[in-house]
Design a protein that fits this description.
By secondary structure, the chain is α+β, with helices and mostly antiparallel strands. The chain has 2 domains: about 80 residues, Ubiquitin-like (UB roll), CATH 3.10.20; about 70 residues, [2Fe-2S]-binding domain (DNA polymerase, domain 1, Orthogonal Bundle), CATH 1.10.150. It is about 35% helix and about 15% strand. The protein is built from 6 helices and 5 strands, in the order ββαβββααααα. The chain has a 5-stranded mixed sheet, with helices on both faces. A hairpin with a 2-residue loop joins β3 and β4. The longest helix is centred in the C-terminal third of the chain and has 16 residues. It is globular, with a radius of gyration of 16 Å. The N and C termini lie far apart (about 50 Å).
Length: about 160
């Protein structure tokens, strides 16, 4: 028996899916839609590697049933910027060389961009607090904070990249 279908809007594009009721949003994004920005880390919603936006709010895709977000706007790292026009947070990470292995990168960028959308000029303490639930084992925390601060400055100046 084929699972019932449902629709999602992912990175501005409407898609129809047939996935089991147990399928997580992360599974659907990676396996059915080929979006590899969100990563599988802990599978418990605790590491942040799978962070996406659901209606503009950062959320952990590994613990969200895909059918539970039917009809809602999902944004992945691939939808945040483009190859030609990066989001300021993506540019900030490049400028400060904040990425090492890259596994946490998706979650850090998505969480930071969500913070800056809500709070354009956060303090360092606020940035640290916001990113505290995103785990990184490479030790680039200083560069990550600098990347977010650089993105905030770039956004305040109206620079798009």
């Amino acid at each position: 028996m084929r699972p019932p279908g449902f629709g999602l809007k992912v990175n501005g594009r409407s898609v129809e899916l047939a996935a089991s009721h147990e399928a997580t949003l992360l599974h659907v994004l990676r396996n059915d839609l080929g979006l590899n920005g969100p990563k599988f880390g802990c599978g418990l919603g605790q590491c942040g590697a799978c962070t996406v936006w659901v209606d503009g709010v950062a959320a952990r895709a590994c613990v969200i049933p895909a059918h539970g977000v039917a009809g809602r706007e999902i944004t992945t790292l691939e939808g945040l910027g483009s190859r030609d026009l990066w989001h300021p947070v993506q540019r900030g990470f490049e400028d400060t060389q904040a990425a090492q292995c890259g596994y946490c990168l998706n979650g850090m960028v998505m969480q930071a961009a969500a913070l800056l959308a809500r709070e354009p000029n956060p303090s360092e303490a606020r940035i640290r607090s916001e990113l505290s639930g995103n785990l990184c084992r490479c030790g680039t925390h200083v560069e990550i904070i600098a990347a977010v601060q650089r993105a905030a400055m770039r956004m305040a100046k109206g620079a798009d990249t």
